[in-house]
């Protein structure tokens, strides 16, 4: 898994210079990529963009280099903790509005309608698609076991007394993963793993990196993957038929 360090101004600073009206509630973004149903666009709430803890920014560099074309060159939005569809690439417009974006892709993509709404109901009544309560913004909690790998074999004759199971977890929305638990008996009991927060290494860094000032020391938000590990006795693995992980 990889993450990146982006360089650029905070979106809030750009918006503040425009002196938004009191009626402004959303930031609509439009990219230069023209798709079958028009240019790609979406929106986020204005108060999110103005919240420094959310870290929403306009990036022109990635890991110290100018953005490459496939990453949104020359300018892109970065909306940490939310689905990728909110981080508009090839950004050409920011529009402050009193309602969510009416862009075709904001309305028809990245939504989860209530389970009682059938395909026929959603086709007949478009209000289901324009209700912003059903738009997906923050990513959901996600946890994965990476080791043991798929079809990995452990030679009991040469293995040590323990095996280190590893994986990653993510909470979305800038929330910090507080625990990751592992089960070897189909959820009857759980074991607490160790967690490494790679992002914390940057919180302790003072100075510039990749051409920009690292300003994470004061922020508690967590936008990067955390990595978990657990030492498991090989005898316990031998008696188990599956590893379950939850965060």
UniProtKB/TrEMBL annotation:
Transmembrane segments: none annotated. One of its GO terms (molecular function) is molybdopterin cofactor binding. GO terms for biological process: sulfur compound metabolic process. Keywords: Metal-binding, Molybdenum, Oxidoreductase. Residues 2-105 form the Oxidoreductase molybdopterin-binding domain. InterPro entries: Ig_E-set (IPR014756), MoCF_OxRdtse_dimer (IPR005066), Mopterin_OxRdtase_euk (IPR008335), OxRdtase_Mopterin-bd_dom (IPR000572), OxRdtase_Mopterin-bd_sf (IPR036374). The keyword Metal-binding applies. Its cofactor is Mo-molybdopterin. It comes from the Eukaryota. Residues 133-247 form the Moybdenum cofactor oxidoreductase dimerisation domain. This is Nitrate reductase. The lineage of its organism: Eukaryota, Fungi, Dikarya, Ascomycota, Pezizomycotina. The gene is euknr.
């Amino acid at each position: 898994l990889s993450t990146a360090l982006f360089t650029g101004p905070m979106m809030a600073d750009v918006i503040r210079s425009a002196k938004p009206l009191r009626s402004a509630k959303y930031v609509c973004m439009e990219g230069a990529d023209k798709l079958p149903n028009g240019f790609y666009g979406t929106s986020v709430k204005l108060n999110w963009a103005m919240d420094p803890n959310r870290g929403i920014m306009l990036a022109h560099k990635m890991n110290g280099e100018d953005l490459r074309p496939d990453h949104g060159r020359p300018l892109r939005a970065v909306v940490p903790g939310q689905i990728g569809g909110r981080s508009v690439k090839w950004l050409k417009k920011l529009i402050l509005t009193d309602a969510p974006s009416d862009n075709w892709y904001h309305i028809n993509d990245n939504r989860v309608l209530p389970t009682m709404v059938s395909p026929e109901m959603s086709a007949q009544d478009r209000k289901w698609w324009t209700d912003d309560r059903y738009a997906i913004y923050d990513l959901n909690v996600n946890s994965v076991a990476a080791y043991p790998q798929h079809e990995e074999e452990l030679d009991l004759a040469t293995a040590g007394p323990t095996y280190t199971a590893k994986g990653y977890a993510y909470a979305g929305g800038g929330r910090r993963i507080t625990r990751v638990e592992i089960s070897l008996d189909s959820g009857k009991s759980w074991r607490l793993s160790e967690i490494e927060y790679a992002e914390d290494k940057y919180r302790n860094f003072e100075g510039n990196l990749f051409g920009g000032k690292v300003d994470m020391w004061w922020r508690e938000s967590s936008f990067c993957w955390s990595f978990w590990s657990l030492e498991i006795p090989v005898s316990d693995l031998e008696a188990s038929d599956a590893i379950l992980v939850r965060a």
